Amino acid sequence: MATENQDPIQIAADKYRSFLHEEARNTEWRHGGPPIYDDVNKLFEEGRTKEWPKGSLEEVVQNALKSWEMELSHKTRIQDFRTINPEKFKLIVNGREGLSAEETLKLGSYNALLKSSMPEEFKYYKADEESFESSHDAFRVALPRGFAWEVISVYSGPPAIAFKFRHWGYFEGPFKGHAPTGELVQFYGIGILNVDESLRAEDVEIYYDPTELFARLLKGPLIAGSEHTDSASTLKCPFNK
């Protein structure tokens, strides 16, 4: 328990995420202060399939990406980011055109990862119609224990780091008009992280199959009276066979 004169920077320390509490007084945080990751850290520790040795390349890569995601989700100014080279940074998802640091920050992590070139009638999640806040709220409600992330394998070291990852949570809250099932929701993917001499990300390439995610999130029955019910019922969802 923190005492009233305890340094708030120290209270916010997190063993998996660097730069969460360093220079926090000068950082503009989206919700007024550094986030607390206790719930998702618990989910991560209970559900991870790999526990990497301290200081190993796998642990370094895993924590670096957790730190980048933290900054993307909770800092509001690129100048406060410590995990990327802002002049060179690009986020490339499933071969689409790369997003700059500012573009990625404006969209938010969920919208950046879930943008799709599928025909409109097959888009259940329409990233272009979601704000940063609405996208995070949707997944925070659907996965109330958090959306944990782990490195499964690292295939090459810096400066071009190739890795396999797993992302998971439990569908325990409604998602876009669909009732929760309580089931595990997870997907796997491949990433390529190019870093500079200071190990800051210059570009991140992510490849994954979004049907792994949405097949679970759209599995629950439609909730009667939900604001999403009418629109959801007219969609031709390719994930539910």
Annotation keywords:
alpha+beta; six-stranded mixed sheet; 6 strands; disordered N terminus; disordered C terminus
Fold and architecture overview:
Helices cover 28% and strands 18% of the residues. The protein is built from eight helices and six strands, in the order H-H-H-E-E-H-H-H-E-E-E-E-H-H. It has a six-stranded mixed beta sheet. The chain is globular and about 55 Å long. The model is unreliable at 1-11 and 230-241 (pLDDT under 50).
Secondary-structure map:
Elements: H1 8-11, H2 38-47, H3 57-74, E1 90-93, E2 99-100, H4 101-107, H5 109-114, H6 132-142, E3 148-154, E4 160-170, E5 184-195, E6 201-208, H7 211-217, H8 229-233
Parallel strand pairs: 1-6
Antiparallel strand pairs: 1-2, 3-4, 4-5, 5-6
Protein name: Pathogen-related protein
InterPro entries: NTF2-like_dom_sf (IPR032710), Pathogen-related_defense (IPR053218)
